[in-house]
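Hi all, a correction to my earlier message: I attached the wrong file for Phospholipid-transporting ATPase. Here's the right sequence:
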Amino acid sequence: MSSGKPLLSTSEPSSEPSPHLHHHLRHSSLTITSLGRLCHNTSVSSSVTEGTQDNNLYDLNEELEEGLKEELEEDITPLGDTGVLGNSVGCPAFLRTRKRFKSADLQVQLTPRERKRLVSWGGATDPQHVWTVHEFSGASPRVVSSGIQDTLNKSRRSERFLQISMQLKENFAHHDNPRLIHINDPKRTNDKFEFSGNEIRTSKYTILNFLPKNLFIQFHRVAYLYFLAIAALNQLPPLAVFGRTVSLFPLLFVLTVTAVKDGYEDWRRHRSDRNENNREALVLQSGEFHPKRWKKIQAGEVVKICYDETIPCDMVLLSTSDPSGIAYIQTMNLDGESNLKTRYARQETNKLVFDGTIFSGVITCEQPNRNIYEFTANLEIKGQRFPLSQSNIILRGCQLKNTEWAIGVVVYAGQETKAMLNSAMSPAKRSRLETYMNRETLWLSVFLLIMCLVVAIGMGLWLNRHKSQLDTLPYYRKIYFEKKKFGKKYKYYGIPMETFFSFLSSIIVFQIMIPISLYITMELVRLGQSYFMIGDRHMYDSSSKSRFQCRSLNINEDLGQIRYVFSDKTGTLTENKMEFRKASVWGKQYGSTLSVDGSLDTNIGAEDVLEGRRKWKLKSEITPDSELLKLLHKDLSGEERIAAHEFFLTLAACNTVVPIPTQSASSSDTDTTLGASYGIINYQGESPDEQALVAAASAYGYTLFERTSGHIVVDVNGEKLRLDVLGLHEFDSLRKRMSVVIRFPNDTVKVLVKGADTSMFSILKKDHPDDDHTKHATQSHLNEYSSEGLRTLVVASRDLTGEELVEWQCTYEDASTSLTDRSIKLRQTAALIECNLTLLGATAIEDKLQEGVPEAIESLRQAGIKVWVLTGDKQETAISIGLSCKLLTADMEQIIINGNSESECRKLLCDAKAKFCVKSANSSDQISKWIKNTESDYLEIPLDTKLSSWQQQHAGQEEGASFGPLALIIDGNSLVYILEKDLESELFDLATSCRVVLCCRVAPLQKAGIVDLIKCRSDDMTLAIGDGANDVSMIQMADVGVGICGQEGRQAVMASDFAMGQFRFLKRLLLVHGHWNYQRIGYLVLYNFYRNAVFVLMLFWYILYTAFSTTSALTDWSSVFYSVLYTSLPTIVVGIMDKDLSHKTLLKYPKLYAAGHRQESYNMSLFWITMLDMLWQSLVLFYVPLFTYRNSSIDIWSMGSLWTIAVVILVNMHLAMDIQRWVFITHISLWGSIIVTYGCMVVLDSIPVFPNYGTIYHLAKSPAYWLSILLIVVVGLLPRFVLKVLQQIFWPSDIQIAREAEILRKRRRFFGPKPDQISS
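and the right structure:
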């Protein structure tokens, strides 16, 4: 960049050069190398750059900034006699050059952080192509600048281009080695290049590699490696604490269950692949089409697809059943969009096929890539070269619709098809609570090592004290005596080695301190939670018949800790069902002509005339404005009448909408009196805006009813008007407009343009009083429409002279057949004709708010969640929608940041911070101020909460006393400059001090940049919600991504973690299911830590009493079954079914959601309290039976049996104390697990070969046995019970207060209060 603008500003034409100069310009060779020098090796095209907001596209700033000039002269060598670059056809010609950099340079100069982030966040910057604009006069380089920014830091500019070129590297690589496809000659095509076959494989494993590969993937979990090491240690003879088979059981069980699940899923993939590969298609062989299996199809073969069949590979269309070469396809399987798309066969090939000619040719195309919206290729037939684009290719997975047949040649097959290249899964996300769990797991590992060291040191000391008695002590005699005979020798390794073996043996005994069962338990609980979320009838959208979807099972609990919601506007907050409301034509507004009774005034009879002429009827009728209808039915004379005619002609012609006429249908009774009959027409388009505009044109008598690749037919008030389409420049994010070149029957050629006002007003013709009046009136109408929340577009046109047409056609042909930088060259070509336009008017389309959006946003705000809206709409529209959905309120102070340079943005941010007393996040006194100024509508947060969280939670509180809550409104152009390192902190400080942030005119990458700004600078959880492909980057960047099943396809849904039909369901998802899931999973993790630790501590106390010998009083099977069978089921059921509060209470009091922000269900304090409770309970478990039987002759296996049943009952009673909602299945699982434990013990004690044979039968007869269990439960849980009672009485939490209120309401309802006293 070399100016204050994102992409340099533009200039005004000064003179008209000769055609020779234009020819020279098109064939000059210049480029800027990685060192910034000009070299003669790449082509240069003449064009103009698209201007940014409030820039005149042709306003050349003649004053050069000295610093930039000197800088450029250092980087560019003199051109010598390369020629003077001038203008052509009244349009300026600027040299656009693209910088290239080596990947090695990128790796050296960029830090990992910089390589990770996408610095070009969009705005006026093209995400795929960035170029610099210079104007040269003779040998002296001149830099075109906006004059806003005085100097530009060279290093920052170089770094920016370096990072951008990283994104371009893959795109450029496609054209370095083009692919050659010989039509109908697969042998020649594949022998030379060895292209991929059409067989696909989505499976992960084969029979041979399943076991090693699956185990390798599973052992990526460090815990599995830990348990594998434990099992391996137990196989060594000196360390065989448990039976060797028994020690392997837990790990083998987990590995087997996971392997079976993975194997079943992969078997289904194999079956799907086999069915897909064995499908058949018609392939041209020996002049006839014969069936051939998909997996046998090769690149270069000609394939015929019939109606409703699926395309087997990526093919270039050669011909269709339609004489004009048009084909309709449905891309549902590829991008999720249900609307039909149009694809075209070249007229040259279509005619040859219809004539029955078997032809051959060569297609030169780009290498396989995953961009489904672009295709760059050329077709050569009989020495002629024709361009091919995305509209000429049909992709694998699409279906042929409304077309009898289509014939194409295979260019990409199998794994090289775009569908297969795009089959990668969304990036894996990990739960925040699970990362915290690793911290506690580390502490448990420390406890484990401490216990093992205590046992090992104790063993060493004991052996040293009794080393003289080792020959006579059991287990340490040198020789065992068996039946008065010398037996085998005991292997004694000496005190140091025995101490070391004791340490390893202790690790084996205490291994379940790290709960392996927790991983499986969490997966099962999350699966159960997802089942109930999917089945929630309150989140079912009847309009789209879509249910809630859980596409990721890893982050259910994160829904309960969301602090930021980043939302798209169109289709997310609004319905994305566009309705044409108003129009400004030639400076006059239409659309509000209402009679006194509120209905449209139709007494003028214009509509009757229209009805008499109309031959087509839309499926959804639009009520036209009577005054505008009257104007349209005047004679075609006068500026206003001609402008209105061209206005609606532009709406009907400048689009990619596909008209689908159906059979004729008789009209209503009133119409049949006139003898009228209509053909019903339906419009299919990729954009709801385009469909609305075409439908509006039809309502006013300009009906598009036929479209081919070369012409369109419009019914103008009953008369057919055939228009030849000479070229179409589709809408792109940089130009922000669309244009079509049309030839009328009288050979007049016009260019019809529509686009955003920011890009259209800069290319209108000037110096005409009438035009200025129309422009000002239209601008006023646009501001009015935006304030009403309507979506606006500006419509303009111009006539093309023969000279201009020839020049444009030549340039257009060169650009459309280029294999390198085709999009850039087409953009430059469009600039040749998109200038000096005549303003026709503007349109206003309404996109209504979805049902329940204001209420949902208000509830989220009360819950302490900030809702930021990131939209591509203009600022006024976004503000209007913000007010209507209660995102913005009248009492808010609005901070508007609209900067056009880095220095200007910095000044605006600093001024706003100073005015509203916003301090940086590192201010030392911020915490105390926030605590003092805590507002009553926000719940209190602990002191250890992160600083940024305080700043964000108490947004605008310090300012609230004098300024009220703050709202930040910022545009995408400013974000281009702000999303840099030095300004990000300023934006972060200001944005997090505001209650609301509204970002307008933002590009997809800028949306991701805003989310990344919060993620990187705070610990707060983020959620992004959207419905379109432009929201995918934002959804994937956020901690939680939610897709809306809307009108813009399913790209957002396919990239999301959760999907639903309406924005209002987000309220229930977070406040109800998010709260429940977080509370359940948090308790589940703490309970699992406690459950296993209390069992291990009980064994630890026993070992201390047995000379540190690591012997166990419990059987091997009891130790294994404890976590897997005895105590697992109640944990899973409670994790799925427990509810601390009802959904009605959670929705009625949104502030209860803040419990997740405060981490009430899982934090370090709770962990240490749980560990202290565990320590007490383990002591009670060990010492109560010890004192009860201290004078008895009970054997060790009987004592172990008592400890086993006691610990199972104790941990289950501990769980029962914390259950909030008792249902039938909860009772079954909890009490059933105790019964199952007794049953297993009876079975194990009934096996004669086991040492504990018969112990349970003797113990059950003793009253001391039952008394011991009772004492253990009462004494062990008494401190916990007392603390819970005290805490609920004196320090109740919000959840407990709400729960008590619920219980009181239920009691009043149970005892029969009056109906009006019952709370809903």
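Sorry for the mix-up. The longest strand covers residues 574-585.
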